[in-house]
Amino acid sequence: MNAEALTVPPLPGDATALIADMGARARAAAKRLALTPTADKAAALRAAAAAIRSRAADILAANEEDMAAGQKNGLSGAMLDRLRLDEARLGAIADAIDAVAGLPDPVGGEIDRVTRPNGLVLSRVRVPLGVIGIIYESRPNVTADAAALGLMSGNAVILRGGSEAVHSNRAIHAAFAVGLVEAGLSADAVQLVPTQDRAAVGAMLRAQGLIDIIVPRGGKGLVARVQDEARVPVLAHLDGINHLYIDGAADPEKAVALAVNAKMRRTGVCGATETILIDRAYSAPLAIIDALIAAGCEVRGDKGVAALSPHVDPASATDWDTEYLDSIVSVAMVGGIAGALAHIDTHSSRHTDAIVTEDAGVAERFLTGVDSAIVMHNASTQFADGGEFGLGAEIGIATGRLHARGPVALEGLTTYKWLVWGSGQTRP
Question: Model confidence over 159-209: pLDDT tens digits?
């Protein structure tokens, strides 16, 4: 292995100079990656996964440092859960990289082809975006997921993780880079910003011509800053204020199981349900409340819900717009599908919303009427995940309307160009 390939240049005093240097190296790597055969990219990813497995002890030790610091600094239980790695989670990270290596390569894929009346043949083919900047908080798995997706889609990536996971991110990145170099690819294809100075984030956001798109993954404050300051396009993932609507025609057994799973399976993930809406015509609302409380969830309800149980706390106006990422849920009684749609239209973050019902007509009205990136029928919102969608790892859930929406995986990290074949045609 070429040791120089893993060498990070001396840290400049100027964050702009640092990002400019990283961006220039990333652009050069991106040009090479765009032409790299699928088999070579897959081999590099498998080598990176193997390196992560072989360095598991080092990565877990680094994560212990981050966990200790997080506990000392008062991180919430949800944030600590996002941060924590163990053998199973680290194994899943490596498995996800291997899974991406086995996915169809979107680069060069033909989207469509048409022959014009004048004989011109037009085709659209997928090409990489170029250099992707990813700014994220607390979740070290993003380091590996973003690196794998970027590489397989032919993009170079510049990663800037949060201070909460600094040691974990560095250990995972170091292992990933070893795999790339062992497979004959440049470590410049996946770079980690070597400083936690917030000025580096600002420099990334202003790096027109060096970074083609920014993907923020984190809390509302981070995403708001990125959207306000970015001079390059942003693929945003806003709050996961997700709703589960229990219709009057819901099966009671399904309703309880889905409510508990959607909220409590993992409370710190963006697919967790934060608000449950119950049709006033539903026959067994108390069973849902009792099941949530029995699972250790704090329930905050409107007047109708509070009247069901003395264990329900009154909901405030802000609860309907809060992503708890914790064992807390807000619950409201609504007047059927119309009331549910109105509440969701007012309070949803357009991430994931679901309905529980056995009425196909009501389900269809919900699926077509809710304007979110993911809309579900009789399924837990916790399925809002690229892996569960068969996309492999994901770089995030895009909640905007442009370019990509929902789980962003390989295809979401490509754009397209037009290819035109003629036989001497001139335009009259």
Answer: 999 999 999 999 999 999 999 999 999 999 999 999 999 899 999 999 999
The token pair that represents 304 in the structure block? 């109708």
Backbone angles phi, psi at 165, to 5 degrees: -115, 25
Ordered by start, the domain boundaries in the chain are 3-236+400-420, 242-383
The pLDDT tens digits for 45-85 are: 999 999 999 999 999 999 999 999 999 999 988 789 889 99
Find out whether 217 and 237 touch, Cβ atoms under 8 Å: yes
What CATH code is assigned to 3-236+400-420? 3.40.605.10
- Under DSSP, the state recorded for 104 is P
pTM of the model: 0.83
Q: Are 237 and 224 in contact (CB under 8 A)?
A: no
Q: Which parts of 241-386 are beta strand (E)?
A: 242-246, 273-279, 298-301, 313-314, 328-334, 352-356, 374-377
Pick the closest to residue 299 from 263, 350, 270, 258 (CA basis): 263
Cβ atoms of residues 240 and 272 within 8 Å = yes
Asked if the 242-383 domain carries CATH number 3.40.640.10, the reply is no
* Structural element, H or E, at residue 135: strand 131-136
